Amino acid sequence: MIRTTDDDGLRVVTIDRPSRRNALRPQDLEALDTAITEAETPVVLLQGAGEAFCAGADLDSVADLSDPESFARLGQKVASTIESSPAVVVAGIDGPARGGGVELALACDVRVATPWATLGEPGVKLGLFGAWGGTVRLPRIVGEGHALEFSLSGRVVDADEALQMGLVSRIEDDPRTVADEIAANDHRSLQVIKARLRDRGPDADRFEAEAASFGELHRANVEDIASSREK
């Protein structure tokens, strides 16, 4: 089950299956994709209910898969929706994040762990691996060395080690404080900054897009810029 609430520039998306540590079935992934796609707020906070962030794929669903490739592509689709959303998506990782839960967090723009967060890719112990885009995003975020060791060992890291690796951005008691901090900024700037930083095109094209975006924002906000200078 996926719950959403919208409040003052922030959509909170909650994976709400605490009895299963918020493990995701195909229908949950579809609902999560819809919750992100339909967000009209500049910032989205993705969190889990209860004592876990997300245990990844529901193992009952995985055991019964008749088309595992389609399930992997569904997880990839949701992660790509998060990554490409015009909203800034913050992962609020409180408690365990495992497998697909880590992969969804990797697709988010900012990952905030609580001191009680733990992260791991245990699929290797079951003859599986992170196939919701994890093999692409993990080395991009933490580097190839950390990505290989983390994925091949299947070990669990705590919040402090995750921060040292670059797997999370910050450690806070309440991740919503970071989401609120981001949402308090100029909303159009947030969208433009995300688009520019997420751009994977040639550098020359990215530089040109950066200059064009700066010009658009400047013209849209010139009065506020002048007012700020006078203070």
From TrEMBL:
Pfam family, one: ECH_1
PROSITE patterns (alphabetical): ENOYL_COA_HYDRATASE (PS00166)
Domain of life according to the entry: Archaea
PANTHER family named among the record's database cross-references: ENOYL-COA HYDRATASE, IP11341P-RELATED
Family designation: Belongs to the enoyl-CoA hydratase/isomerase family.
Identification of the protein by name: Enoyl-CoA hydratase/isomerase family protein
Native species: Haloferax namakaokahaiae
